[in-house]
Amino acid sequence: MLFALIGGIAACIVVIIIVVLLLTQARRHQKPDDADVGAPDATSLSAGENTGRRLAVIKSDNCGHCRALMPLLEAMIAEGTSIDLVRGEDKAMSWYRENNVRGYPTICIMDGDSVVEMHRGPRTKEAILEFREEHLPAPQQS
């Protein structure tokens, strides 16, 4: 009788652990939907304005490619390149459809909250700077 009770308790514990693991995985891979997303939010390591035409990178905190690109972006920002880092998790699914954004990281030119040009080349400093020069006016010299 005691062994049956212990076996039943152990089985319950295993089921609880499996349910917790499944819920954790499901939440980690959940995409934002229109109902649970507030106003779009963009942040910038360069402390630039988030309006007007600008170079932006749409990224996700859970994306390996984004994490691999961050040291390059941080170095470029430290050298004076203005790059807005836009958290993809803060965008509604309808925003992705309207702007034709299909993956992370997306290097692009944004105007306000709209993507106007997408970089389709390599993710190197030189290629990103060339993309910016092609699509943005030269910065004002003081």
Secondary structure blueprint with pairings:
Blueprint: H1 2-28, E1 42-44, E2 53-59, H2 64-78, E3 84-87, H3 93-99, E4 106-111, E5 114-118, H4 125-135
Parallel strand pairs: 2-3
Antiparallel strand pairs: 1-3, 2-4, 4-5
Write out the strand line-up for the largest beta sheet, numbering strands in chain order. Answer: 1-3-2-4-5
What is the number of helical segments per DSSP (H or I, 4+ residues)? 4
Instruction: Provide the CATH superfamily of the largest domain.
Output: Glutaredoxin
- Structurally, the number of domains stands at 2
Radius of gyration over all CA atoms, rounded: 22 Å
Number of E-type strands: 5
The portion of residues forming beta strands comes to 15-25%
Q: Cα distance, first to last residue?
A: 86 Å
Q: Quick one: biggest sheet? A: 5 strands, mixed
Q: Secondary-structure element sequence?
A: HEEHEHEEH
CATH class annotation of the largest domain: Alpha Beta
Low-confidence blocks of residues: 29-49
Structural class call reads: alpha+beta
Looking at CATH, which topology of the largest domain would you report?
A: Glutaredoxin
Shape: elongated
Can you tell me the CATH architecture of the largest domain?
A: 3-Layer(aba) Sandwich
Helical amount among residues, as a percent range? 40-55%
* pLDDT averaged over residues: 81
